[in-house]
Amino acid sequence: MMSRGTDRREFLSRIAAGSASLLVAGSALATDAEKKGGKGRKSGGRKGKAKESRQWKPLFNGTDLTGWKEMSSKPGQWKVVEGVLTCSGGGGGWLSTTEQYANYEIALEFQLPAGGNSGVFLRHSGEGDGAYTGMEIQALDDYAKMYDALQPWQYCGSLYGVVAAAPAVSKRDPKWQDRASKPPDASGKTPWQKLDILCAGRRVKVTLNDKPIVDANLDDHPDQFAKHPGLKRVAGYIGLQNHSTGVYYRNIMIRDPGPQEPAAK
Question: Is the dihedral of CA 16, 20, 23, 25 positive or negative?
């Protein structure tokens, strides 16, 4: 049997030990909660920023040419008419963004007159022909008789001169009717056509009227680098081609491309 003094000392010692254990456990839980909370906040911040960067933003404001500049020996061919970016077709040249872009997804609608010819330039250097010093996604009235003898890589939606829009066919091929482009109607113009272009790293993907028609890895075409040095560029201007036939663009939007999978084989 212990003395009363010994019992009291032992009792106090046990209380102190218990309190210390609780403090250590509480501190560990608080630290763990802070870590988890911190991670949650950081993760949420990253996700929030990523989500924000993936939001579509207007590249054309529907009112004027703010953010664009006309690259032509005869300026004045591009105007905004009732919210539509309208090219009269004279003078040639192209309309360029004032800023350069590296990786992005761009969505727009275009309309062509019968026999119309235009294109969307990607990573244009700002000099020379953008189909070569950058890249061009063809916008063309495929159905015009004047284009009967084109190469497959010249038809609408193709990565011009490099990758033909699927199905990679000419009008003589029975698969012609499977193409994504639309012919002019009774108005003498094509319907408004939707074009979505992903330009991310070495991948270029094109969707025309909701139909994927190009999914290219640029490094699969080293044989074209000499003729198309723009294939090696990592950034440049976005442009709209004036091929002297007239063309209409509207609802031009851009966003961050997000994480990417390799181009489809």
Answer: negative
Residue 261 is assigned to a structural domain of this protein:
no
Alpha-carbon distance 94 to 120, whole Å? 9
Say yes or no: 10 and 69 in one domain: no
Whether 24 and 18 have beta carbons less than 8 Å apart is answered as: no
- pLDDT per residue as tens digits for the range 49-78: 666 768 999 999 999 999 999 998 788 999
- Which residues form the domain of 227? 57-255
Q: Which of 7-11, 26-30, 124-128 is the least confident region?
A: 26-30
Identify the domain boundary among 28, 53, 78. 53
- Looking at the fold, whether 236 and 128 belong to one and the same domain comes out as yes
Entry pTM: 0.80
Q: What pLDDT is recorded for position 49?
A: 64
Residue written as tokens 């969505």? 107
Residues 230 and 174 in one domain: yes
* Same domain assignment for residues 43 and 128: no
